[in-house]
Amino acid sequence: MKKQNAKVLRAANRRVAKYNHRMASMLALSIFAIIAVIAIVSLCVEPSTLGNLFTWGGTGGGSLVASMMVIGNLDDLPDTDTTGKNLWGEVYLIDVSDQIDTASAFPKPNAAREVGTLPMKTGEYMKKFMAHTAPTFLSTGEKGEFTVTGETTFAIVMAGQRKQLLNFSEQHVGKRFILIFKQLDSDTRYILGSYERPVYFQSFENKMDNDGRYVTYTFKREGVQQYHEYTGSMVLQAAGTHTAEQTTLAITAGQDVYTIPNGSSATYGITSISGLTASDKGRVITLLGAGTTYSATVADGAAFTLEDAATWTAKAGSKLVLKVLDASTLVEIGGSRIQTA
User: Fold this and answer.
1) Number of domains making up the chain
2) Burial class (CB in 10 A: 0-12, 13-18, 19+), 145
3) Which residues constitute the domain of residue 163?
Protein backbone atom coordinates (compact mmCIF):
# COMPACT_ATOMS: atom_id res chain seq x y z
CA MET A 1 0.00 0.00 0.00
CA LYS A 2 2.82 2.36 0.90
CA LYS A 3 4.55 1.63 -2.40
CA GLN A 4 1.40 2.50 -4.33
CA ASN A 5 1.06 5.78 -2.43
CA ALA A 6 4.69 6.66 -3.17
CA LYS A 7 4.14 6.03 -6.89
CA VAL A 8 1.07 8.23 -6.89
CA LEU A 9 2.97 11.02 -5.07
CA ARG A 10 5.88 10.89 -7.55
CA ALA A 11 3.49 11.03 -10.47
CA ALA A 12 1.71 14.03 -8.96
CA ASN A 13 5.04 15.81 -8.42
CA ARG A 14 6.01 15.24 -12.04
CA ARG A 15 2.71 16.70 -13.23
CA VAL A 16 3.22 19.75 -11.00
CA ALA A 17 6.78 20.23 -12.31
CA LYS A 18 5.60 19.99 -15.92
CA TYR A 19 2.85 22.51 -15.21
CA ASN A 20 5.30 24.96 -13.58
CA HIS A 21 7.72 24.62 -16.49
CA ARG A 22 4.92 25.23 -19.00
CA MET A 23 3.72 28.30 -17.10
CA ALA A 24 7.28 29.70 -16.84
CA SER A 25 7.74 29.23 -20.58
CA MET A 26 4.46 31.00 -21.30
CA LEU A 27 5.49 33.89 -19.01
CA ALA A 28 8.85 34.25 -20.77
CA LEU A 29 7.18 34.23 -24.18
CA SER A 30 4.71 36.88 -23.00
CA ILE A 31 7.54 39.13 -21.81
CA PHE A 32 9.38 38.75 -25.13
CA ALA A 33 6.15 39.53 -26.98
CA ILE A 34 5.65 42.72 -24.96
CA ILE A 35 9.24 43.82 -25.67
CA ALA A 36 8.75 43.12 -29.38
CA VAL A 37 5.56 45.18 -29.47
CA ILE A 38 7.30 48.10 -27.72
CA ALA A 39 10.20 47.94 -30.19
CA ILE A 40 7.84 47.91 -33.19
CA VAL A 41 5.87 50.88 -31.83
CA SER A 42 9.14 52.76 -31.16
CA LEU A 43 10.30 52.21 -34.73
CA CYS A 44 6.96 53.40 -36.10
CA VAL A 45 7.03 56.56 -33.96
CA GLU A 46 10.76 57.33 -34.38
CA PRO A 47 12.31 55.47 -37.35
CA SER A 48 15.78 56.87 -36.57
CA THR A 49 15.98 54.48 -33.61
CA LEU A 50 16.48 51.65 -36.11
CA GLY A 51 19.85 53.06 -37.08
CA ASN A 52 20.83 53.31 -33.44
CA LEU A 53 20.36 49.53 -33.07
CA PHE A 54 23.13 48.88 -35.58
CA THR A 55 25.40 51.93 -35.11
CA TRP A 56 28.01 52.36 -32.40
CA GLY A 57 29.61 55.80 -31.95
CA GLY A 58 30.64 58.45 -34.44
CA THR A 59 28.78 59.95 -37.35
CA GLY A 60 30.07 57.66 -40.06
CA GLY A 61 33.17 57.73 -42.17
CA GLY A 62 34.05 60.63 -44.41
CA SER A 63 31.95 63.31 -42.68
CA LEU A 64 33.53 66.71 -42.27
CA VAL A 65 33.28 68.46 -38.91
CA ALA A 66 31.45 71.78 -39.25
CA SER A 67 32.73 74.39 -36.80
CA MET A 68 30.42 77.00 -35.31
CA MET A 69 31.80 79.52 -37.82
CA VAL A 70 30.77 77.22 -40.70
CA ILE A 71 27.34 76.52 -39.21
CA GLY A 72 26.83 80.28 -38.82
CA ASN A 73 23.74 82.13 -37.63
CA LEU A 74 20.40 80.36 -37.72
CA ASP A 75 17.18 82.37 -37.88
CA ASP A 76 13.73 81.13 -36.97
CA LEU A 77 11.21 79.86 -39.54
CA PRO A 78 7.56 80.97 -39.80
CA ASP A 79 4.74 78.84 -38.41
CA THR A 80 3.71 77.97 -41.96
CA ASP A 81 6.88 75.85 -42.14
CA THR A 82 6.51 74.37 -38.65
CA THR A 83 3.86 74.34 -35.95
CA GLY A 84 3.39 75.77 -32.51
CA LYS A 85 3.59 79.23 -31.04
CA ASN A 86 5.70 81.83 -32.76
CA LEU A 87 7.61 82.87 -29.65
CA TRP A 88 11.22 83.16 -30.69
CA GLY A 89 14.17 83.17 -28.31
CA GLU A 90 17.69 84.49 -28.93
CA VAL A 91 20.52 82.18 -27.89
CA TYR A 92 24.24 82.37 -28.68
CA LEU A 93 26.09 79.04 -28.55
CA ILE A 94 29.83 79.51 -28.01
CA ASP A 95 32.11 76.49 -28.34
CA VAL A 96 34.63 76.53 -25.48
CA SER A 97 37.27 74.43 -27.26
CA ASP A 98 37.12 76.01 -30.71
CA GLN A 99 36.05 79.62 -30.12
CA ILE A 100 37.09 80.80 -26.66
CA ASP A 101 40.60 82.07 -25.94
CA THR A 102 41.10 80.01 -22.78
CA ALA A 103 44.63 81.41 -22.39
CA SER A 104 42.98 84.68 -21.30
CA ALA A 105 41.32 85.02 -17.92
CA PHE A 106 37.60 84.31 -17.83
CA PRO A 107 35.70 87.45 -16.74
CA LYS A 108 34.64 86.86 -13.15
CA PRO A 109 31.18 87.99 -12.04
CA ASN A 110 31.08 91.08 -9.84
CA ALA A 111 28.93 91.65 -6.76
CA ALA A 112 25.98 92.54 -9.00
CA ARG A 113 26.27 89.16 -10.78
CA GLU A 114 27.52 90.82 -13.98
CA VAL A 115 30.02 89.20 -16.36
CA GLY A 116 32.12 91.16 -18.86
CA THR A 117 33.23 90.44 -22.43
CA LEU A 118 34.27 86.89 -23.32
CA PRO A 119 37.73 86.62 -24.92
CA MET A 120 37.18 85.09 -28.34
CA LYS A 121 39.92 83.56 -30.46
CA THR A 122 41.05 85.61 -33.45
CA GLY A 123 38.57 85.21 -36.28
CA GLU A 124 35.91 83.56 -34.10
CA TYR A 125 32.57 85.23 -33.40
CA MET A 126 29.45 84.44 -31.41
CA LYS A 127 26.81 82.66 -33.49
CA LYS A 128 23.12 83.22 -32.90
CA PHE A 129 20.45 80.51 -32.85
CA MET A 130 16.91 81.91 -33.07
CA ALA A 131 14.74 79.39 -31.22
CA HIS A 132 11.17 78.89 -32.40
CA THR A 133 9.78 78.88 -28.86
CA ALA A 134 10.91 80.44 -25.60
CA PRO A 135 13.97 78.56 -24.26
CA THR A 136 13.33 76.24 -21.33
CA PHE A 137 15.49 76.82 -18.25
CA LEU A 138 15.30 74.49 -15.24
CA SER A 139 17.72 74.43 -12.32
CA THR A 140 17.48 72.22 -9.24
CA GLY A 141 19.51 71.75 -6.08
CA GLU A 142 19.34 69.35 -3.17
CA LYS A 143 21.24 68.80 0.05
CA GLY A 144 22.50 65.27 0.50
CA GLU A 145 24.02 63.62 3.53
CA PHE A 146 27.49 65.04 2.96
CA THR A 147 27.21 67.50 0.08
CA VAL A 148 24.89 69.58 -2.07
CA THR A 149 24.07 68.44 -5.60
CA GLY A 150 22.42 70.32 -8.42
CA GLU A 151 21.72 70.29 -12.12
CA THR A 152 20.80 72.90 -14.70
CA THR A 153 18.97 72.06 -17.93
CA PHE A 154 18.60 74.47 -20.85
CA ALA A 155 16.63 73.45 -23.93
CA ILE A 156 15.76 75.19 -27.20
CA VAL A 157 13.58 74.19 -30.13
CA MET A 158 14.91 75.01 -33.59
CA ALA A 159 12.51 75.04 -36.52
CA GLY A 160 12.89 72.98 -39.66
CA GLN A 161 15.24 70.27 -40.92
CA ARG A 162 18.07 72.43 -42.23
CA LYS A 163 21.57 71.20 -43.08
CA GLN A 164 23.14 73.42 -40.41
CA LEU A 165 20.92 71.87 -37.76
CA LEU A 166 21.75 68.34 -38.90
CA ASN A 167 25.48 69.14 -38.90
CA PHE A 168 25.26 70.69 -35.44
CA SER A 169 23.43 67.62 -34.12
CA GLU A 170 25.93 65.15 -35.55
CA GLN A 171 29.16 66.94 -34.87
CA HIS A 172 28.69 68.94 -31.67
CA VAL A 173 26.70 66.69 -29.33
CA GLY A 174 28.74 66.10 -26.19
CA LYS A 175 30.83 69.25 -26.62
CA ARG A 176 31.31 72.07 -24.11
CA PHE A 177 29.57 75.41 -24.57
CA ILE A 178 28.94 78.78 -22.98
CA LEU A 179 25.41 80.05 -23.57
CA ILE A 180 24.28 83.67 -23.84
CA PHE A 181 20.51 84.08 -24.02
CA LYS A 182 17.92 86.84 -23.92
CA GLN A 183 14.46 86.85 -22.43
CA LEU A 184 11.61 87.63 -24.79
CA ASP A 185 10.45 90.82 -23.10
CA SER A 186 13.83 92.31 -22.14
CA ASP A 187 17.05 93.56 -23.71
CA THR A 188 19.06 92.04 -20.84
CA ARG A 189 21.25 89.11 -21.81
CA TYR A 190 22.30 86.29 -19.49
CA ILE A 191 25.28 83.95 -19.55
CA LEU A 192 25.44 80.31 -18.44
CA GLY A 193 28.72 78.42 -18.19
CA SER A 194 32.43 79.19 -17.91
CA TYR A 195 35.79 77.66 -18.83
CA GLU A 196 35.93 75.46 -15.74
CA ARG A 197 32.20 74.71 -15.54
CA PRO A 198 30.87 74.71 -19.10
CA VAL A 199 27.45 73.62 -20.29
CA TYR A 200 27.43 70.29 -22.13
CA PHE A 201 25.40 69.65 -25.27
CA GLN A 202 23.69 66.65 -23.70
CA SER A 203 21.21 65.46 -26.33
CA PHE A 204 19.11 66.28 -29.37
CA GLU A 205 15.72 65.09 -30.61
CA ASN A 206 15.20 65.51 -34.34
CA LYS A 207 11.53 65.18 -35.21
CA MET A 208 9.63 65.26 -38.49
CA ASP A 209 6.00 64.08 -38.43
CA ASN A 210 2.42 65.37 -38.51
CA ASP A 211 3.12 67.57 -35.47
CA GLY A 212 5.92 69.49 -37.18
CA ARG A 213 9.52 69.62 -38.34
CA TYR A 214 11.94 70.70 -35.65
CA VAL A 215 14.87 69.67 -33.49
CA THR A 216 15.21 70.08 -29.73
CA TYR A 217 18.68 70.72 -28.28
CA THR A 218 19.20 70.03 -24.57
CA PHE A 219 22.19 71.36 -22.63
CA LYS A 220 23.09 70.36 -19.06
CA ARG A 221 25.51 71.33 -16.32
CA GLU A 222 26.10 69.73 -12.93
CA GLY A 223 26.18 71.96 -9.85
CA VAL A 224 24.12 74.67 -8.21
CA GLN A 225 25.72 77.66 -9.99
CA GLN A 226 23.09 79.82 -11.68
CA TYR A 227 23.25 82.14 -14.67
CA HIS A 228 24.64 85.70 -14.53
CA GLU A 229 23.87 88.88 -16.40
CA TYR A 230 26.10 89.37 -19.44
CA THR A 231 27.20 92.99 -19.68
CA GLY A 232 30.08 92.47 -22.11
CA SER A 233 30.26 93.16 -25.81
CA MET A 234 28.67 90.83 -28.32
CA VAL A 235 31.58 89.74 -30.51
CA LEU A 236 29.75 89.36 -33.82
CA GLN A 237 32.40 90.49 -36.28
CA ALA A 238 36.10 91.25 -36.51
CA ALA A 239 37.30 94.00 -34.19
CA GLY A 240 37.56 97.46 -35.68
CA THR A 241 41.00 99.06 -35.60
CA HIS A 242 41.56 102.49 -34.09
CA THR A 243 43.74 104.75 -36.21
CA ALA A 244 47.20 104.87 -34.63
CA GLU A 245 48.09 108.15 -32.88
CA GLN A 246 44.54 109.52 -33.21
CA THR A 247 43.34 111.03 -29.93
CA THR A 248 39.63 110.55 -30.74
CA LEU A 249 38.04 107.10 -30.57
CA ALA A 250 35.69 106.92 -33.56
CA ILE A 251 32.80 104.55 -32.75
CA THR A 252 30.62 103.24 -35.58
CA ALA A 253 27.20 101.57 -35.62
CA GLY A 254 27.29 97.81 -35.18
CA GLN A 255 30.93 97.75 -34.11
CA ASP A 256 31.51 97.28 -30.37
CA VAL A 257 35.10 95.99 -30.24
CA TYR A 258 38.17 98.04 -31.20
CA THR A 259 41.85 97.18 -31.33
CA ILE A 260 44.13 99.97 -30.11
CA PRO A 261 47.40 99.73 -32.06
CA ASN A 262 50.93 100.71 -31.21
CA GLY A 263 52.11 104.24 -31.96
CA SER A 264 54.56 104.66 -34.83
CA SER A 265 57.11 106.79 -33.00
CA ALA A 266 55.64 107.77 -29.62
CA THR A 267 52.91 106.91 -27.15
CA TYR A 268 49.59 108.75 -27.50
CA GLY A 269 46.55 109.34 -25.35
CA ILE A 270 42.93 108.83 -26.41
CA THR A 271 41.02 111.68 -24.83
CA SER A 272 37.70 111.97 -26.70
CA ILE A 273 35.07 109.94 -28.52
CA SER A 274 32.84 110.43 -31.55
CA GLY A 275 30.03 108.66 -33.36
CA LEU A 276 27.67 108.06 -30.41
CA THR A 277 24.09 109.28 -30.01
CA ALA A 278 21.63 109.28 -27.13
CA SER A 279 20.12 106.01 -28.42
CA ASP A 280 23.46 104.24 -27.79
CA LYS A 281 23.01 104.54 -24.01
CA GLY A 282 23.80 101.20 -22.36
CA ARG A 283 25.84 99.93 -25.30
CA VAL A 284 29.07 98.15 -24.31
CA ILE A 285 32.35 99.08 -26.00
CA THR A 286 35.47 96.94 -25.61
CA LEU A 287 39.01 98.15 -26.27
CA LEU A 288 41.71 95.56 -26.95
CA GLY A 289 45.32 96.56 -26.45
CA ALA A 290 47.85 95.77 -29.19
CA GLY A 291 50.69 98.07 -28.20
CA THR A 292 54.34 97.21 -27.67
CA THR A 293 56.91 99.98 -27.35
CA TYR A 294 54.53 102.93 -27.88
CA SER A 295 51.26 101.82 -26.35
CA ALA A 296 48.32 104.22 -26.27
CA THR A 297 46.70 105.26 -23.00
CA VAL A 298 43.17 106.08 -21.84
CA ALA A 299 42.99 108.33 -18.79
CA ASP A 300 40.14 109.33 -16.52
CA GLY A 301 38.63 112.56 -17.80
CA ALA A 302 35.70 114.23 -19.53
CA ALA A 303 35.13 111.43 -22.06
CA PHE A 304 36.18 108.43 -19.96
CA THR A 305 35.16 107.65 -16.38
CA LEU A 306 37.53 104.96 -15.18
CA GLU A 307 37.44 102.81 -12.07
CA ASP A 308 39.51 104.42 -9.29
CA ALA A 309 40.51 107.02 -11.92
CA ALA A 310 43.30 104.63 -12.96
CA THR A 311 44.83 105.12 -16.43
CA TRP A 312 44.62 102.14 -18.79
CA THR A 313 47.55 101.32 -21.09
CA ALA A 314 46.75 99.54 -24.34
CA LYS A 315 49.54 96.97 -24.20
CA ALA A 316 49.07 93.70 -26.06
CA GLY A 317 46.74 91.43 -24.08
CA SER A 318 45.12 94.29 -22.16
CA LYS A 319 41.39 94.98 -22.28
CA LEU A 320 39.10 97.82 -21.22
CA VAL A 321 35.30 97.38 -21.18
CA LEU A 322 33.17 100.52 -21.15
CA LYS A 323 29.44 101.26 -21.10
CA VAL A 324 27.91 104.21 -22.94
CA LEU A 325 26.49 106.70 -20.44
CA ASP A 326 25.56 109.33 -23.03
CA ALA A 327 26.72 110.55 -26.43
CA SER A 328 29.98 111.91 -25.02
CA THR A 329 30.81 109.68 -22.05
CA LEU A 330 32.02 106.11 -21.60
CA VAL A 331 32.12 104.54 -18.11
CA GLU A 332 34.35 101.59 -17.22
CA ILE A 333 32.53 98.45 -16.09
CA GLY A 334 34.02 97.65 -12.72
CA GLY A 335 36.12 94.51 -12.46
CA SER A 336 36.33 93.96 -16.21
CA ARG A 337 39.75 95.50 -16.85
CA ILE A 338 42.77 93.46 -17.92
CA GLN A 339 46.08 95.26 -17.69
CA THR A 340 49.27 93.54 -18.84
CA ALA A 341 52.69 94.77 -17.79
Assistant:
1) 3
2) exposed
3) 68-230
d(CA 338, CA 334): 11
With 0.70 as the threshold, say if the pTM is over it: no
Is residue 44 included in any domain, yes or no?
yes
Q: Which amino acid is at 27?
A: L
- Tell me, yes or no, whether 182 and 122 share the same domain: yes
Please give the chain's pLDDT, 341 residues, in tens: 545 555 544 555 565 556 556 665 666 566 656 655 555 544 444 444 434 433 333 334 444 556 777 777 767 666 554 544 445 578 999 999 999 988 888 888 988 999 988 888 878 899 999 888 888 999 999 998 889 999 999 999 999 989 999 999 999 999 999 999 987 667 889 999 999 899 999 999 999 988 889 999 999 999 999 999 998 888 888 888 999 999 999 999 889 999 999 999 999 999 999 999 999 998 999 999 999 999 999 999 999 999 999 999 999 989 899 999 999 999 998 878 889 87
Asked if residue 59 belongs to a domain, the reply is: no
**Where does a domain end: 205, 230, 255?**
230
CB 336 within 8 A of CB 321: yes
CA contacts within 13 A on the Cβ side of 244: 12
CATH code for the domain in which residue 293 is found: 2.60.120
Give the whole-angstrom CA distance, residue 172 versus residue 162.
15
21 burial via Cβ count (<10 Å: 0-12, 13-18, 19+): exposed
Please say whether the beta carbons of 203 and 170 come within 8 A: no
